[in-house]
């Protein structure tokens, strides 16, 4: 598998990064994990606009899904070759209605489904192209899912947005790479079931026995280096900050 960080800023884009979006590739298949603010433009640095095969939306907060509205325009009003065939989109219940509302004036209430084939996420195991994936509900104010992606004996876990929860340990167990949110600062914010801080991300990685920890979804107001240092106090494996354009071969 190949993982490319398209965007990794939390809550809104920073001057250096779009919001959450991560490209996973194997056997010529391209799966995008989330498409937050600014991600659609950054994605085109790595692949063609119409080269995606499937999309996973961890939840329906704007910093994880709002660029789907722009992608709808590209797929619906495509000038060359006509309208795009529906692409699988795995998302929480109500995604089609939420995106239709966000776009405000789609040609009809069903226009999104003409180019996106929406599949409602539930906890469980299924295939997306060549990938075997497992999703679990995590702790967030809205319905939100973390995902484990496996291919050819290698594994990647992406937390999405979550507070501390046992499901995350299960999904990250033995993962080669754990892409984990670290929005809060240890000792500063303490809001239950909302986000992780760097130390908590490290604790999850340690309990799970993950091979590598990559901290992501760090908002522009959070000290990323402090979160990195906090994670390293409790997790002894390789630990780093996600940066746009970073590539990991698994």
What does this structure look like?
With 250 residues, this protein is of the alpha/beta class. Helix content is 24%, strand content 28%. The chain has eight helices and 14 strands. The protein has helices at residues 39-43, 62-65, 68-76, 95-103, 112-115, 166-172, 198-208, 224-234, and strands spanning 2-7, 21-26, 29-33, 54-56, 87-91, 116-120, 124-128, 131-137, 145-151, 154-158, 177-181, 213-216, 239-241, 247-249. The strands form two sheets. It has a seven-stranded mixed sheet. A seven-stranded mixed sheet has the order 7-8-9-10-11-12-13, with helices on one face. Strand 3 (29-33), helix 1 (39-43) and strand 4 (54-56) form a beta-alpha-beta unit. The longest helix is centred in the last third of the chain and has 11 residues, at 198-208. The termini are close together. 49% of the residues are buried. The mean pLDDT is 96.
Brief summary:
With 250 residues, this protein is an alpha/beta fold. It has eight helices and 14 strands. 24% of the residues lie in helices and 28% in strands.
Q: How do the helices and strands line up, and which of them pair or pack?
A:
Elements: E1 2-7, E2 21-26, E3 29-33, H1 39-43, E4 54-56, H2 62-65, H3 68-76, E5 87-91, H4 95-103, H5 112-115, E6 116-120, E7 124-128, E8 131-137, E9 145-151, E10 154-158, H6 166-172, E11 177-181, H7 198-208, E12 213-216, H8 224-234, E13 239-241, E14 247-249
Parallel strand pairs: 3-4, 4-5, 5-6, 10-11, 11-12, 12-13
Antiparallel strand pairs: 1-2, 1-14, 2-3, 7-8, 8-9, 9-10
Helix pairs in contact: 6-7, 7-8
